[in-house]
Amino acid sequence: MFTEVLLGLVIGGLIFFLVQRSRNQVLKIEDGWWGAGAPPDGEEDVTIRPFRVTTSDEELKDLYSRIDQTRPVASLEDSQFNYGFNSHYLLKVVSYWRNDFDWGRQVDKLNQYPHFKTKIEGIDIHYLHVKPKKVPDGTTAIPLIMVHGWPGSFYEFYGLIPLLTEPSDPDDLVFEVVCPSIPGYGFSEAPNKKGFDSVCAANIFHKLMKRLGFQQFYAHGGDWGWLVTTNMAQLEPKSVKGLHVNFAPPSKPGLPMTLSILLGRRFPKLFGFTDVDIQRLYPCMEKLVVESIKESGYMHIQATKPDTVGRGLNDSPVGLAAYILEKFSTWTDRDFRNLEDGGLTRKFSLDDLLTNVMIYWVSGCIISSMRFYKENFGKGLDQPHSKIPVYVPTGFACFPNELMHTPKLWVTQKYRKLVTYTPMVRGGHFAAMEEPQLMAEDIQKFTKTVEKKKQ
Fold first, then answer.
1. 203-225 confidence digits (pLDDT tens)
2. What is the average per-residue pLDDT within 264-270?
3. What CA–CA distances, in Å, run from 139 to 86, 201, 241, 441?
């Protein structure tokens, strides 16, 4: 009996030691310099400067001239969006862009929120900083940083921001929102040196939040924003009060995940699998492989030779629009591939879609945005951040049409303090833009849960 108790204490102590050791793991990074040339002597300029999106007749004249010079190519009969962006429908989109789309009006819409720029590690960082107009007595606004992905931009959050800063329900929390552009995206300056990956972006955004006076804050992200905010939680877990994501592909399959794949269909309850999990995870293997190939070609290009194809997209607005908008079709719903118009306006307006394209066009950022894949995948899949669990309270919004389905069990392998896991009723990859109301509700639910536990 004594031996059994002693053995139990030893095993329990070993488990406790291993858990505590993993909890003490913190991602480490040295500060970088991403400006041109060598860093200057002296301290970096930390001035925060107001910024406004602008346009000009010359900018529009150049755009229209390039659109007018495009050379149409006929799509194959009955091909819809299965070969990429359907050329017949592209003519309609381009005609609207050339003749009806009002960029000046959209610029005014972009400027409805305050924009700023500030130098961090040698490059200009662009961000929105939206403070609530009214905060209930006895409360304070909750700081929240929201990070976009590719081929999106800060504009993805324009429908979500007012729902968080001016909620209609008096019982809802009020947020103070910061939306930065990842360096190399939108109006953030592109790094001038090789090696700028998600961890570097996370480090810069920590500096941004501290410069704005936030020692603790919440973070939300999808697509690349998921990884950047996850890295933020790994770098400084005491600064990130809570992490909310709507994309969480497994970074490193472990034994529980492997067993769940092998046995989950036969013993779903053993792994906590729901009917939705079974439906999403167990089509025939051939279908899974084919679907992956169909939707990942862009990634292989951007992770290897982004500058080559990027140069063509940087010169051709029509090519750029086709390349970007095709993702807003198939990543919103894969079945949209079988529609002549790609289902684009079923979930988005052409004005909103083209505004996102215009952010890429006028800033000339398509190549630098694509390089982010090269910098992240070029270092291999076995990076330090892939081995470190996240112990920051986490919420996961599981949208049914996301590119990759992640069951709750798989999410907890990385995010050890999973506070909420919400199966959403609808929505795809660009969830914040497609379903802002659902996203706002889930961010509210998650943050309220975390705040209540802290109290």
1. 999 999 999 999 999 999 999 99
2. 86
3. 51, 31, 17, 19
SS3 at position 65 = helix
378/230 Cα distance (integer angstroms): 19
Q: Between helices 350-363 and 87-99, what is the axis angle to 10°?
A: 80
138 and 174 Cβ atoms separated by less than 8 Å: no
What are the catalytic residues? 223, 373, 429
Q: Sign (positive/negative) of CA torsion 422, 427, 429, 432? A: negative
Torsion of CA 447, 448, 450, 455, to 10 degrees: 140
Query: Nearest 10 degrees: CA dihedral of 245, 251, 252, 257?
Result: 40
- DSSP-assigned letter for residue 82: B
| CB-CB neighbours of 226 under 10 Å | 22
- For the beta carbon of residue 4, count every other beta carbon within 10 angstroms: 8
Quickly list DSSP for 196-254: --HHHHHHHHHHHHHHTT-SSEEEEE-THHHHHHHHHHHH-TTTEEEEEES----SS--
CA 29 to chain centre: 21
Residues 6+ apart with CB under 8 A from 130: 113, 114, 161, 165, 176, 177, 178, 179
Provide CB contacts within 8 A for 424, sequence distance 6+: 397, 398, 399, 400, 431, 435, 438, 442
**163-178 pLDDT tens trace:** 999 999 999 999 999 9
pTM for this one? 0.92
Distance from C-alpha of 99 to C-alpha of 65, rounded to nearest angstrom = 12
Locate the domains of the chain by residue range: 114-251+381-454
Class of 114-251+381-454 per CATH?
alpha beta
Question: Cα separation of 307 and 40, whole Å?
Answer: 29
Dist CA 410 CA 45 (whole Å): 43
Q: How confident is the model at residue 395 (pLDDT cuts 50, 70, 90)?
A: very high
Asked whether the beta carbons of 114 and 161 are under 8 A apart, the reply is no
